[in-house]
Backbone:
């Protein structure tokens, strides 16, 4: 199955979604596109699972729902045809930065024919988010593959929990209302980065407290999130 619409048609469809409501032909085109996204997800899932079958990892996937896509287009200047992460695959590994690099290299080699483009969020975190992404072309459309360590994943899930409970403004710095949680998430990201880099460089001082301090801060942030939820109800 190949992409059912051209990039120009997808762009026009995205603009129509923002204006709404869609006419019948636009609704049909959107259903075709959604079917294609699900096909991409299924095919790349099978390909990656097979390739990593002997490596211990946690695997998940998603296709962004239409409301999330529309919110992203309304929040940013991005057009639907430029959106690279509608179809997403996530690989979480129980290992250090060396092992993460190994997995990324394996996937780059496996998907060499799909024009992989590496995005290193370890060097340039985005709002505290750290991971390595691969963007590939699969059956004519983009797919995003996220490769995270367990600690990077824990940070990301905590951040998403905050967004789910308190709203996207906590992530995108649109308000000072949740600056306390945002600053703690930033502190946690830096702490995890220091821990992982120290292991990577083999310079970590012999202390079991480092990971314990990370877990304490996770608990602190979780408590803050639910405390603020009660306040904004």
Residues:
């Amino acid at each position: 199955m190949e992409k059912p619409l051209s990039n120009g048609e997808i762009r026009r469809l995205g603009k129509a979604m923002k204006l709404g409501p869609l006419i019948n032909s636009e609704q049909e085109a959107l259903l075709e596109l959604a079917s294609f996204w699900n096909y991409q997800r299924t095919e790349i899932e099978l390909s990656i699972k097979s390739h990593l079958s002997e490596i211990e990892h946690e695997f998940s996937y998603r296709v962004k729902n239409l409301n999330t896509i529309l919110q992203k287009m309304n929040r940013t200047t991005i057009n639907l045809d430029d959106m690279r992460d509608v179809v997403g695959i996530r690989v979480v590994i129980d290992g250090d930065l060396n092992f993460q690099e190994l997995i990324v290299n394996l996937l780059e080699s496996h998907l060499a024919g799909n024009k992989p483009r590496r995005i290193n969020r370890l060097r340039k975190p985005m709002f505290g988010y750290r991971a390595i992404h691969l963007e590939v072309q699969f059956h004519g459309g983009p797919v995003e593959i996220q490769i995270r360590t367990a600690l990077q994943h824990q940070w990301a899930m905590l951040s998403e929990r905050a967004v789910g409970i308190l709203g996207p403004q906590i992530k995108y710095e649109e308000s000072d209302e949740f600056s306390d949680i945002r600053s703690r998430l930033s502190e946690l990201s830096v702490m995890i980065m220091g821990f992982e880099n120290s292991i990577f460089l083999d310079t970590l001082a012999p202390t079991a407290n480092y990971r314990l301090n990370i877990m304490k801060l996770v608990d602190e942030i979780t408590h803050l999130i639910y405390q603020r939820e009660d306040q904004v109800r």
User: Anything to note?
Assistant: The mean pLDDT is 91. The helical segments are 7-19, 24-51, 66-75, 97-110, 150-166, 169-172, 179-201, 209-232. The two ends are 46 Å apart (CA to CA). The beta strands are 57-63, 87-93, 117-120, 132-138, 141-149.
